[in-house]
């Protein structure tokens, strides 16, 4: 269960086709309007459903946006178990750049980060995102230690800072491209710190 996702109540079961239509409409609205002008009414209009149908599934904007992010992530973020630590980190970084470079998520992330300190629902949703990312990265490190490719005792938060810091800088400050050359350099710099000497 996602932390912001609603539970189904009594009555007819939810139609998964409507769920997909609503989350796809949410992504379209985010890409066109961003977070500040994102409304449940516009999502309902784009999805061809009633506003009540949207609110039955999602009690708030952030609940809907989080569920749309999860669906997009599950489609676009690759498995990170490639057989080597270098490959695993590359898959992780490329998946992150694929998501972060999307106009929907890069457009709303700064606004959500700004709202999180004063909006518990936004903070909870972002916390779930960071928890998921930390779990994926921890699994990469654990496999790397087992393969004797990564130094034992490497801290996941340190690695996350090395990877997420430069990515967030490009998304929120510099606007520099999130391209393959950047991904390669990021992985190379990270492995230079955490890689086990041969």
Map the helices and strands:
Elements: H1 16-33, H2 40-47, H3 51-57, H4 61-76, H5 85-100, H6 103-115, H7 120-146, H8 156-174, H9 180-194
Helix pairs in contact: 1-2, 1-4, 1-6, 2-3, 5-7, 5-9, 7-8, 8-9
CATH topology of the largest domain: Tetracycline Repressor, domain 2
Number of strands: 0
Model regions low in confidence, pLDDT < 50 over at least 5 residues: 1-12
Overall CATH architecture of the largest domain: Orthogonal Bundle
Total helices: the number is 9
- Whole-number mean pLDDT: 87
Count of individual domains: 2
Order of helices and strands: HHHHHHHHH
Beta fraction of the residues? under 5%
For the biggest sheet, the summary is: none
Work out the radius of gyration: 19 Å
The structural class is mainly alpha
CATH top level assignment of the largest domain: Mainly Alpha
Gap from first CA to last CA = 43 Å
Binned, the helix content reads: over 70%
Query: Any idea what the CATH superfamily of the largest domain is called?
Result: Tetracycline Repressor, domain 2
Taken from the alpha-carbon principal axes, the silhouette is elongated
């Amino acid at each position: 269960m996602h932390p912001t996702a609603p539970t189904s109540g009594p009555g007819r079961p939810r139609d998964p086709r409507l769920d997909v239509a609503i989350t796809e409409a949410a992504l379209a609205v985010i890409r066109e309007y961003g977070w500040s002008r994102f409304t449940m009414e516009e999502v309902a209009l784009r999805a061809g459903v009633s506003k009540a149908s949207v609110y039955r599934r999602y009690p708030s904007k952030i609940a809907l946006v989080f569920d749309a992010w999860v669906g997009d992530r599950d489609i676009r973020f690759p498995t990170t178990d490639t057989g080597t630590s270098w490959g695993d980190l590359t898959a992780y970084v490329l998946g992150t750049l694929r998501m972060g470079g999307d106009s929907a998520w890069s457009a709303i992330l700064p606004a959500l980060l700004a709202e999180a300190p004063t909006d518990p629902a936004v903070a909870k949703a972002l916390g779930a995102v960071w928890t998921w990312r930390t779990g994926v990265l921890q699994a990469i490190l654990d496999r790397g230690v087992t393969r004797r490719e990564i130094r034992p005792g490497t801290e996941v938060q340190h690695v996350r800072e090395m990877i997420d810091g430069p990515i967030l800088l490009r998304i929120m400050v510099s606007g520099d491209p999130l391209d393959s050359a950047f991904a390669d350099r990021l992985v190379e710099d990270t492995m230079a710190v955490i890689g086990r000497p041969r």
